[in-house]
Design a protein that fits this description.
Blueprint (H helix, E strand, L loop, with lengths): L2 H17 L4 H15 L3 H13 L3 H15 L5 H10 L3 H9 L8 H17 L3 H7 L9 E2 L3 H14 L3 H20 L9 E2 L30 H8 L1
Antiparallel strand pairs: 1-2
Length: 235
């Protein structure tokens, strides 16, 4: 790839990352422009998949995710693939895709995203008990706050509510808020640092729920970052 073309692709990827949360359609236009210039580059197809998902085009997201996996050999966007299968109305296929990967080989954050997506697929199939089991993973630690904790706790609250276990659901929703507040307060901490969560009384909590979407929706609980976004964050 020539330098001029490479620079243009980099600008499109940077713009896609910058505007995806505020204008997904525009982000997708930039991703598609990057695909036309460098369709064999893994991060380009990854960005195209994420922006397609953000616009609700789950079928296109699936195609781009499969291309990304084929080029990169990575499973780091497996949760998005599972959720995209859910988005096109195929929860059975979603579960098959999730079971096909070695979860022990995934980073902790990806493993959590996958568990939430799998739990959502179980809910789609009317299997709340099995949806709850999908969330019984080592990362479910109510006493520590990691970047994935608010979404994981909120997902568990959603499933418990579906099961009619209202008190437990409210407790996990409360923990999700506590974890989110703890993470916000420690925004300057090192990424690998553990945060111990000090419990507080319910009336002291904010009335706003966690920003993450519940697992029962077609959207992922948190949008995964592309390599371009991760590089920007490290800069």
């Amino acid at each position: 790839m020539g330098k001029e073309n490479a620079d243009a692709v980099a600008r499109h990827l940077a713009m896609a990352a910058r505007v995806i949360d505020t204008d997904p359609a525009l982000a997708h236009e930039h991703a598609q422009a990057a695909v036309k210039r460098a369709g064999r580059i893994a991060v380009v197809r990854e960005t195209a998949a994420i922006t397609a998902y953000a616009t609700g085009d789950f079928a296109l997201a699936l195609r781009e995710l499969r291309t990304y996996r084929r080029i990169s050999g990575k499973d780091d966007q497996i949760a998005l693939l599972v959720d995209s299968e859910r988005g096109v109305g195929r929860p059975d296929r979603a579960l098959e895709a999730g079971r096909a990967v070695d979860r022990d080989a995934l980073p902790a954050g990806v493993r959590v995203e996958l568990a939430i997506a799998m739990s959502g697929a179980r809910l789609d199939l009317g299997e709340p008990e099995r949806a709850l089991s999908e969330l019984d993973i080592p990362e479910l630690d109510p006493d520590r706050a990691f970047e994935w904790s608010p979404a994981l706790f909120a997902a568990r609250a959603t499933v418990l509510d579906e099961l009619g276990r209202v008190d437990e659901a409210q407790e996990w929703q409360r923990r999700a808020i506590i974890a989110a507040d703890a993470l916000d307060a420690a925004a300057g901490f090192a990424e690998s640092e553990e945060l111990f969560v000090e419990d507080i009384e319910p009336e002291e909590l904010s009335s706003e729920g966690p920003a993450a979407a519940p697992a029962a929706t077609a959207e992922p609980t948190s949008r995964p970052a592309t390599e371009t976004e991760r590089a920007d964050g490290e800069g």
